[in-house]
Design a protein that fits this description.
Elements lengths: L3 E13 L4 E13 L3 E5 L6 H8 L7 E6 L2 E2 L5 H11 E5 L10 H11 L6 H10 L15 H12 L6 E5 L7 H18 L2 E5 L3 H5 L3 E6 L2 E5 L1
Helix pairs in contact: 3-4, 3-5, 4-5, 5-6
Length: about 220
C-alpha cells in the first residue's frame, strides 16, 4: 500500500502574459509520506506558494500529475477538488484570514458549516483552550493581537481533523517571540493529530524542525532531503 499522501510527478506551471509565457514551476517531482513534516524553502519568487497551491488542489498544473491522498487532481473537476479540500485539508496562511464579524469560537467552527455539518462548539472550545485562548472565545478578531489571531487560525485548521495541513508563512506577520509560540503550537497540534505538515517558510530555524526540507530555486526543486 502506498504511504505517500502527496505525489507530484514532472509538474510544471506556465502562465501566459500579453507578451510572453512565464514558467513559474518547471518539472517538479516530489513525494510526501503520511505523518511527515516537510518545509518548502527558497527566495521570494522561487515558486513556493505556486507549488503549494498546486499540491493542495487550489490551482491546476500546466503539465505533469499530482496525486493527493491517492486521487489524481488532474482527473477531478473544481467541485470535486473543493470537496477533497474541505474533507481532508487544513490551511494556515500568513494573513490569518479570520472573518471579522465572527467571534474566535465562530471562526473555529466555520469549517463545520462549510462542510454542511453541525457546529461542534465543544471541540472548538477544546482547540481554543489547547492554543491558550479558552478565555477569549467570545472575542472578535479586532479584539485579538496578531499572535492570538494566528492561534485562532491554527485551531480552525485542526477543526475537521485534516489529513494534511498546508501552512504558508504562518509566522510571517508575527514578532519573533510570538512566532516561536505559534510554531510550538503548530508542531504540538500536528503531532497530537498525526497530521502531515507542508510548511512554506523563509525561516531556516523553522524549516530545520521539519523532517525534510525541499529547497526551491527559480521554479525548480534544487534538493529534497
Amino acid at each position: 500500500m502506498e504511504s505517500s499522501v502527496i505525489k507530484a510527478n514532472s509538474v510544471s506551471k506556465v502562465v501566459s502574459t500579453k507578451h510572453e509565457q512565464l514558467t513559474i514551476l518547471s518539472d517538479v517531482s516530489l513525494e510526501v509520506e503520511q505523518g511527515e513534516s516537510v518545509a518548502i524553502v527558497g527566495t521570494s519568487g522561487a515558486g513556493k506558494s505556486t507549488l503549494m497551491s498546486l499540491l493542495a488542489g487550489l490551482d491546476t498544473s500546466t503539465s505533469g500529475e499530482i496525486m493527493l491522498l491517492g486521487k489524481s487532481l488532474n482527473a477531478l473537476d473544481d467541485e470535486q477538488r473543493a470537496s477533497l479540500r474541505s474533507e481532508s485539508i487544513g490551511f494556515v496562511f500568513q494573513s490569518f484570514l479570520l472573518i471579522p464579524s465572527l467571534t474566535a469560537l465562530e471562526n473555529v467552527t466555520l469549517p463545520c458549516l462549510l462542510k454542511g455539518e453541525a457546529e461542534d462548539n465543544e471541540k472548538a472550545t477544546q482547540l481554543l483552550e489547547a492554543v491558550g485562548l479558552g478565555h477569549r472565545i467570545d472575542h472578535l478578531p479586532t479584539q485579538l493581537s496578531g499572535g492570538e489571531q494566528q492561534r485562532v487560525a491554527l485551531a480552525r485548521a485542526f477543526m475537521t481533523n485534516p489529513k494534511i495541513l498546508f501552512a504558508d508563512e504562518p509566522t510571517g506577520n508575527l514578532d519573533q517571540k510570538t512566532a516561536a509560540k505559534v510554531i510550538e503550537l503548530l508542531f504540538d497540534l500536528n503531532k497530537k493529530h498525526g497530521t502531515t505538515l507542508v510548511l512554506i517558510t523563509h525561516d531556516h530555524a523553522l524549516a530545520a524542525r521539519c523532517d525534510r526540507v525541499c529547497q526551491m530555486n527559480a521554479g525548480k526543486v534544487e534538493s529534497f532531503q
